Amino acid sequence: MKKNKRMKPLNPLIILFLIPGIFTPSLAMPSVSKHDLRFSRLATSWDEGIPLGNGMLGALVWQKEDHLRLSLDRADLWDLRPMENFTKPEFSFKWVQQQVKENNYKAVQNLFDAPYDQLPAPSKIPGAAIEFDTRDLGEVSQVRLALNNGVCETKWKNGTRLQTFVHASQPGGWFRFEHVSKTFVPVMIPPQYRKSETSDANDPVAGQDLQRLGYEQGKVVETPNKLVYRQKGWNGFEYEVAVSWEYSGNTLTGVWTITSSSSEKEGGKTASELVTEQLKDTKFEVALQSHSVWWRTFWTKSAISIPDTVLEKQWYLEQYKFGSAARADAPPISLQAVWTADNGKLPPWKGDFHHDLNTQLSYWPAYSSNHLDLEEGYLNWLWKYRESFKKYTKTYFGTSGMNVPGVTTLEGEPMGGWIQYSFGPTVGCWLAQHFYLHWIYSKDEKFLKEKAYPWISDVATYLDEVSVKDENGVRKLPISSSPEINDNSIHAWFPQTTNFDLAFIRWTFEKAAELADELGKKDEAMKWKSILSEWPQFALDEQGGMVFAPGHPYVESHRHFSHLVGWHPLGVIDWSKGEKDQEIIKSTLINLENRGPDWWCGYSWSWLGNLYARAYMGDKAAKSLHIFSENFCLPNSFHVNGEQHDKGFSKMKYRPFTLEGNFAFAAGVQEMLIQSHTGIIHIFPAIPADWKDLSFSTLRAAGAFLVSAEQKNGKVTWVEIVSEKGGVCKLKNPFGTDSSHAKYSWNGTLKSENDILMIEFPKNGKVVLTK
Fold first, then answer.
1. Sign of dihedral through CA atoms 45, 48, 49, 54?
2. Of 58, 80, 81, 82, which is closest to residue 70 (Cα–Cα)?
3. Is residue 173 a contact partner of residue 257, using CB atoms and an 8 Å limit?
């Protein structure tokens, strides 16, 4: 909206009704249970097991040979031995630049990449497993994951029934078997940290053998109705797994948990003590009830109803996994979260925190799905290790301010790998976007002042110092990269700033200025704007589409759309900005489609769904997300990177399980239903032409607005908006030329300019617009 343009009265076709009270239309949402996972047998591999979790503890329910197996995990089980190569004087961005200049990149690979592949740690490590000998139970008749309360139920044809869950808000997992004898007991199966045969395999994708960690094997101690396993790790770290049970008639009820050195230090109780207390003080039914209350609250946060059953089901499964993997007081979602591989090996890529795409994509859906409370765990963890990140920045980049290692341990320490990305020059910027998004979607003034702006300004300070100017006074990075273009070769470093790095740099200075203005820091805002003006614009190809870097077009299929981050998720380039940006987007998409998906992963298809949605191409967005769901996921909905059914959607055929593709999928569906990244709320902006009847409930929009809406027969029938913090809400008129009615919870007014409806809300104000 131009500032010099006077506000016009509302179009005569919009009729205002100021009626006391508030009208709440009915919203027919599908039952969550409609999307339960249901199988006629137990999975026979760990990565297809039924996932249960509470952000800190996790379990997978599956069958190994003739035993039902619960693979148990805890998020802070880590071998944190340091990478000694990072103490060498060569650990320096300037040293790397010199090796690139001298064409001596083998030295860099040997020092910073090879150790990641060759050394078993630092790494996430597994917990243990509990098994039940089910040979005498006969054939399974049904396995069901109830999404409404996160309970896995297994039934056998002989009448035996299992209910098991990881308590949503307490440190333990429960199980109950009905119709079993007292000889039916759990067995603790610890990971094999010691065995007769040792493998020297060092494949970070397939996973290294656990015995390479060099641990002495822990022991399982059995007492009446209890098993306790304690394992010593590196440098005094220990963890304990315990299970306790009791019988009542022909029913077996039990509790398990895992504690670590850190949790025992904080809480003062071991796993053995916790399971004894829980089983003594809490009945199974009481635990199930409180657990179910948490999940009921979770499902009230948002809901969708769309005519595409495949996408709707997958979205609900992604929401369930997010609720199982994220908590405000738990570590962020790592590559596999609380479902570490149970195959005698370390997890793919050591189960680490990849910040060149993985953690970022995992939190994409948190904002508009209205789960900021769970997203806070990511930000809390980043903030906790802020000083460590500053130390890394000073040591490696030689600057003040802050950047973040692209691959980190549980405690934020660098792990190495392909250093163009594991020590990437703009990692901190991508993480900064999540601080910004939390502010924009929450409008939490305290968060803005104490965390969002300090984080972004720290990153801007680092970028100011690490950049150099060419002979024309234009800024650039000394060397630049674009994940994961040219993999780990010397050619992965570009002499000119890539569009990937440039997008984050331009975004960081733009937002630093915006937030400084918001806080009244006018001098700082001017400084950031001045620096922003010294950076170049994006490089384009001959057709006007996005490239990797000047002179380096997108000429072959690649899994990581790193050159497109300026468009999505950043919005530095956006359809709303007019014809120039629209032409860039269209040309980029044509090239992306022409090069094809030969070397895409599952997350590429999820990301593509978001890209199409931002371009308002609903049919293509839905198709891309369909391809992801039906071809890159296992039956339990886990994303496994490679194509699983040989339908020509990728030449990547492997199956390492990681979660970012799952959550990027959920974000893509939400982008089809609501967009607000421009400050204007768009209802159903990117839905397929044949989606006539659909709705959503309390999706969150920028500005801390909670929005619900319904469309019938291709026409929006009503929109409800609730404002948590008050302020002006801008809504693209969803009714077209049809007349509409507005009902307010206060004495509200509605203004219109062009096709934008504007409502000034009080705090907690509510309005319903109807056709």
1. positive
2. 58
3. yes
> Taking a C-beta distance cutoff of 8 angstroms, is the pair 44, 63 a contact?
yes
Secondary structure (3-state) at 256: strand
**What does the block give as tokens for 698?**
């309390």
* For residues 700-706, average pLDDT: 98
Rounded Cα distance between 107 and 477, Å, is 22
**Cis omega (within 30 of 0) on the bond before 82?**
no
How large is the average pLDDT for residues 747-764? 93
pTM score: 0.95
At 70 the three-state DSSP class reads: strand
Kindly tell me the burial class for residue 630, based on how many C-beta atoms sit within 10 Å of its own C-beta (0-12, 13-18, 19 or more).
middle
**3-class SS of residue 727:** strand
Please give the mean pLDDT across all residues of the chain: 94
Using the predicted structure, report yes or no on whether residue 14 has a pLDDT greater than 90: no
Helix/strand number for the chain, H first, E second: 20, 31
Comparing C-alpha atoms, which of 345, 340, 352, 344 is closest to residue 122? 352
pLDDT tens digits, one per residue of 574-613: 999 999 999 999 999 999 999 999 999 999 999 999 999 9
DSSP letter (8 states) at residue 11? P
CA distance 624 to 605: 6
For residue 753, give the amino acid letter: E
Q: What distance in Å separates the CA atoms of residue 491 and residue 495, rounded to the nearest whole number?
A: 10
Which residue is associated with the tokens 């020297």?
Answer: 200
End-to-end CA distance of the chain: 25
Structure tokens at 755: 């096709």
Confidence category of residue 198, pLDDT binned at 50, 70, 90 = low
What is the C-alpha to C-alpha distance for residues 683 and 697, in angstroms, rounded to an integer?
12
Run of H or E residues at 667: helix 660-673
What is the predicted pLDDT for the residue at 4? 38
List Cβ neighbours of 450 (8 Å cut-off, separation of 6 or more): none
Residue among 552, 545, 550, 549 at smallest CA distance from 567: 545
Give the up-direction half-sphere exposure of residue 408: CA atoms within 13 A in the CB hemisphere: 27
Burial of 439 (0-12, 13-18, 19+ CB in 10 A): buried
Q: For strand 674-675 and strand 475-476, is the pairing parallel, antiparallel, or unpaired?
A: unpaired
Q: Could you tell me the CA-to-CA distances from 657 to 2, 205, 357, 358, 633 in Å, in that order?
A: 48, 10, 15, 12, 9
In contact, 228 and 242? CB cutoff 8 Å: yes
Q: Which of 351, 390, 362, 307 is nearest to 712 (CA)?
A: 307
Cα of 291 vs its chain's centroid, Å:
23
Residues 466 and 625: their CA atoms lie apart, in Å, by: 39
Q: What are phi and psi of 38, to 5 degrees?
A: -135, 130
Residues 6+ apart with CB under 8 A from 424: 356, 406, 481, 483
Cα separation, 704 vs 554, whole angstroms: 38
Cβ–Cβ < 8 Å for 735, 769: yes
Which two tokens mark 397? 């980049």
516 CB neighbour count, 10 Å cutoff? 22
Query: Are 614 and 667 a contacting pair, CB within 8 Å?
Result: no
Mean pLDDT of the 360-367 span: 98
Tokens of 409: 């341990």
Token pair of 596 as six digits: 């094809």
What is residue 201's predicted lDDT score, i.e. its pLDDT? 59
Q: Where are the strands (E) in 627-725, listed by range?
A: 674-675, 682-683, 694-701, 705-712, 715-723
